[in-house]
Amino acid sequence: MSYFSHLECSVPCGRPALDPRDPHHLCACGAPLFARYDLVRARTWSRDSLKGREPTMWRYRELMPLFDDEEPVTLGEGFTPLLRARTLGARLGLDRLYIKDESLNPTNSFKARGLSAAITRAVSLGAKTIALPTAGNAGNAAAAYSAAAGLACEVFIPRDAKRPFIDECRLYGAHVTLVDGLITDAGRLAAERGRPLGWYDVSTLKEPYRIEGKKTMAYELAEQMDWRWPDWIVYPTGGGTGLIGMWKAFEEIERIGWVAPQRRPRMVSVQAEGCAPIVRAHQQGTEKTAPWEGAATLADGLRVPSPIGDVLILRALRESGGAAIAVSDTSMVDAMLAIGTDEGVSAAPEGGAALVAIERLVAAGSIKPSDSVVLFNTGGALKYLDVIT
C-alpha cells in the first residue's frame, strides 16, 4: 500500500500542499519541494514485512513516491553493503567503523538511487525527455535509467569533466552537451535549452524525487544496524541531496515506529578545500552559502559552488550537532588508496575525503573510541584511476 500523499515546501513557507499527480519542480517561493506521506496510516506497516523482499531500495516502496498502480524504473539499485572496516578502525582506534559502499550501485555510485526515483515519477507524469546538468555520476545514472524507461536524455556536463563520465553517458544513448564552465553554468544552459522544449528537468533538488531515492540510505542503515542509529554519519557533500534525504528519513522512520526516538546521528559534511561553500557557511554561522569563486577539485562530485539545498544541509548539521570539514585533494587521494589497500573497497576521491574527515575528528577527540561511525563511499574508483600515481 502506498502512503504517498502530497508535496510541500521544504522550508516550509506556508503555501498549500501540491498534488504529486501533476508535475512540480520548485516551490513558488523558490525552495525545494519534499514528498510527504501519511505517516499516521503508515504506522500500521510492519518492518517485519521487509523479510523476503527484493534487496533493492524499492523494498521500502510504501514510503516512496510511487502509487499502487505504478511500477518503478529499476536496475537493482540500493541495499548496498555496510562493511565493518576493521583494519582502518584498528588504526584509528575505532571498534565500530563502517563503510556504506555505494560504489556497488548501478553506474557505480549513489546517484542511481536518486535517478531511479526521479525517472520513475517522470514516466508517470508523461515525460518524454530527461534533462540535467551533471558533474559526472548523476549524468551516467540519468542516462542509464532513461534508457531503461525508453526516454530520451539530454546531459549537460563541464567540458573538463573526466572522460569516463562523458563516455558513459553516451554508452547509454544520452545526447551530451559539453559546457565551458562549472555545473552551475551547465545548469543554466540545460534550463535555457530545455524549458521551451518541455524537457523534464531532474537537476539536484529542482524536482522533489531524487531526494526520495537518496533517503533510502537511511532506511537501509536502520535495517542493517538492527534498528538503531550510528553515532556519526560522515558524508561527502556536493549538492547534498543524500545528506538532506537521510535527515528527512530519520523523522519518517521514527514517526512510523521503526526506530525508537533517540539521539540522531551527528551529520558531518565533507568538502574539498577548493570548493567548500557549506564548510565556510557553517563556520561563519550563516543560514545560506555564498557562491564559491574559482571552484576547483579533482573530486568532480564535490565541485558544486552554489548548492541549492544549502539551507537544508546547514540545518541538518546544526540540529544534529555535526560538523563541516574541508580536505585537500592530495589527502583524499591518499585516503582512497588507504580504503582500497586496507579494506578492499573501491573508493572515489569523495570516499577518501570522508576518511580524512574521520581521522581529523578522531584526532580532535570529537569521535570517541566507543562511537559507531559510518563512512559513506558515494562512488567507485574506476572513473578516477588517473588520479592514482
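(ticket continues) Second input and output from the same batch:
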Amino acid sequence: MPRSSGSEKKIRENICPRCGAASATGELCGSCRIHENPWFTCGKRVVCILCPTCGSRKEGGVWTDTVAEREEIARDLVRRSVQIVPEVARPVLKISVKEMTINRSLAEVVLEGTLFGEPVHAMCQVEILWQKEQCDRCSRISGSYYEGIVQVRASGRRPYRHEIRTVERIAREIEEGCYASGERLSFISDTDETKDGLDITVGSQHIGQAIAAAIVQRLGGRFSTHPKLVGERAGKRLYRITYSVRLPRYGKGDVIVVNGRPGEVIYASGREIRYREIANGTERSAREDRVERYIGSTRDAREYLVTFRQGNTIGVLDPETGTPRECFVGRDAEYVPGQTIRILNDGDDLLVVGER
C-alpha cells in the first residue's frame, strides 16, 4: 500500500474533528468551540427599589441618593445583569428599554463581539421590576423623628430680622453639605420662629452641632449643649440634645457708644466687642459691659444727598422733609456735593455710616 504524502497528512490534521471545517491547529474550529462554551449569561429579571418621596434608590439594603432618570437606571441594572466571558474581543452591548406598565419594563439586549476569531451575535430579554418603598430619611421625617433642637436666642433682646434670615440660610447650607457628603439622616425637619427667636429641629446630633457652631462663627456669641435621656435601643442610651445658641447683645452693624465715641460693631463674642470708630475708622476692642449706649443699626440708616462740604462739616438734605441739615465727618472722608450717603439719626445728631 502506498504511503500517504506529507501534504495529505497535513490536510487531515488541519480539519476540525467535529464538523470537518478547516482548523488551523487540527483541533475544534472557532465555530465549534463557541457552541461548546457559552460565552455570555443574561439575567431574566432585575428589581429596582425607589423611594416615592425623594427618588433615592435602595441597593443591598443601603439607600443612596440618585438623580438618574428611570431609563438610565434600567440600562445600568440590565448592563450589570449581563456577563460576557473575557475571551470575547471588542464586545458591544446594545440595550433598548420599553415601558410595559408603571411597575414593569422590558429590556431588549443585543450582544456582539469576536470570539476565537469568529464574529458572535446574540439577543436576550431582561425584565425590570420597579418597587416603591419609603427610604430611611423620608420615613424619619414623616414620622417626626428628631435627635435635637437648635434654639437661637439673643442676650437682652430678640434676634434681629436679618439675624433670623442669616441663621436660616446657615442651617440650609449645612443641611445641603451633609446631604451632598452622604449623610442622609442629617436633615432639618422643622424651623419655628417664636417670640424669643428661632427653633430648628434636626434629625441627627451631628448636624445640630454643625449648625450651632456655624451660627456662632458667623454671628458671634456662644452655644451650649443640654442632653436629655429619652430611652434605650439595643442596650444603648438614646439622647436628644438641645443646642442653646446665645447671640451677643450687640451684633455686626450695630452702632454703639464707647468712651463717648460712636463705633460700628464688627464682631462680638458675647463678652468682647470689636468695633470701628465712626469718626476716624480706628478699630478697637472693649468688653460688652463698657458699652455706654446703643444708637441703632447701620441697616436702619437712610440715604441723604450731600449739598456742600466745608472742612469737616457737610450739608445734607433730609430724604423725607427736604430740610437741610449739617453733620460732622472725619478729615479723611471723601464726601462731595451731589453724592448720596447713608446716615443714622442719633437724636439731634447725624452719624454718617457709609456711602450708598
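Agent notes: Residues 4-11 have pLDDT under 50 and may be disordered. The chain is about 20% helix and 45% strand. Closing as not reproducible unless the customer responds.
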